[in-house]
Amino acid sequence: MRQSVQISKLNGFRSGVIALLAAASLGFTASSIAAGPATKPAKPDVAIGEKLYNNGDPQRGVIGCASCHGAEGKSAAGAWPKLAGQHSAYTIKQLKNYKDGTRANAIMAGMSAALTEQDMANIAAYLNKQTVSLGVAQNKETIGLGKQIYAGGIAEKGIPACAACHSANGAGIPAQYPLLSGQWADYSVAQLGYFRDGTRKNNAQMTAIAGKMSDIEIKAVSDYMAGLR
Question: Cα–Cα distance between 22 and 38 in angstroms, integer?
Answer without folding.
Answer: 21
